[in-house]
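W.,

You were right to be curious about this one. When I first looked at the sequence I had no strong expectations either way, so I just let the prediction run and decided to look at it fresh. Below is the sequence, 395 residues in total, followed by the output.
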Amino acid sequence: MTTPDAAGLRRRTQELLAAHPPATTGRTEFLKARFDAGLAWVHYPAGLGGLDAPRSLQPVVDAELAAAGAPDNDPRRIGIGLGMAAPTVLDYGTDEQKQRFLRPLWVGEEVWCQLFSEPGAGSDLAALGTRAVRDGEDWVVDGQKVWTSSAHLARWAILIARTDPDLPKHRGISYFICDMTDPGVEVRPLRQITGEAEFNEVFLTGVRIPDSRRLGPVGEGWKVAQTTLMNERVSIGGARVPREGGMIGPVARTWRERPELRTHDLHQRLLTLWVEAEVARLTGTRLRQQLVAGQPGPEGSGMKLAFARLNQEISGLEVELLGEEGLLYDDWTMRRPELVDFTGRDAGYRYLRSKGNSIEGGTSEVLLNIVAERVLGLPAEPRNDKDVPWKDLAR
C-alpha cells in the first residue's frame, strides 16, 4: 500500500464523512468506522487504526473531522489508554493482543488504568513488591497499588509485578494486562485535597492472569514499563494546546476582564509566567515533531517537569489575583469523577489540584535525576542496591 500524503488523507477523510455523516451516525459507530479507515492514529500500522503514515499528518485528519462536526473519542476520559497502554501494546503486544485491545481502547468502549505505583515503593518504582507467581498457564498476583487514576471506571489495567525476587529489582519484573473485573481485584477510593476521589488504591488478592496477557518476555517488565513511562510523560507534559491554553488561560482572562484586581507586581509575574507557558507550549510542539522520527525519550521528563512547576505557579498567582474570592471553593462533595477538568472549575480547585502535578506521572525529584543523567549527561547518583537481589533489600 502506498503511504498516503496530506492530499490522500484529506480524500480518505472526506470518504469517511460521506459514508458515515456525523449528523446521522451514532458516535460509537462513527468512531469505529474512523478506526477501521485508518484515521484514528495515522502513524499506526494498517489494520490497527492507522495507515503507516507520518505522525505529522494526524492534524490534517483532525482538522477535516473537526470542521465537519465529527465526534472525538473524548481523549481526556481515556487518556491512560491512549497515551500509555496503546503504545506499549503496539511495541510489545502479540498480533492477537493488538487486534483485541487497540480498537475498543481508541473508540473508548474500554477504559484503562495503570497499576504501577505502590505504597511501599514510593518514587523507587522498581522496588515494587506486588508478586506474580506462575501456576500452569496463569499467573497468580497478590499485592497493592496506589494513586490509580480511573481504576473505578477501568475494564483493563497495565500492571507490573515481581516474578523473580532472587534477581535485582530491575530484572525480576514482568508486565501484564489485568482484567479489572476479575475476582480478587478490589478498588477503593482515595479522597484527595480537592474533596474528590479521582485516585484509587487497588488490592490484588489471588488474581489469576493468563500468560497470554503478558506483554514482553518474563523478567523484562522494567524495559516494557519504560515505554509506558516515556509516553506517559509526553502525554502529560507535551499535550497539544493552543496559545493561552491550559492553566494560563483563566488567569489571563481574569486579568483582562477585572482591571480593578491588577497591581504592578502581579502584572510582572503574569508576564513572566505567560512567556514561560508559551515557551513550554512551543517546546511541546517541537517534542511532538521529534516523535515523528522515533520514540519518546527523556526529553518528555523535562516537559513534564515544566508542566508541574508552571501549573503550580500559575494557579498560585490566580488565587492571589482574585484576593478573597480566591479563597472560596465551589464544592467539597465526595465524588469519583471520570476526568480531571482544570479549566472547567474555579481557581480554588486549580490551586489544590495542581499540587499533585509534581507527584503524578513521576515525581519532580525523580524527573530531575532523569534529565540530569540522560539529557545533560551528568554523573549518575550512587546506587548501592542496583545489583542486590530484591529479596535482600531493606524494607
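Here's what jumped out at me. The longest helix spans residues 264-291. And, maybe more interesting for your project: The mean pLDDT is 91.

Coffee later to discuss?

I.
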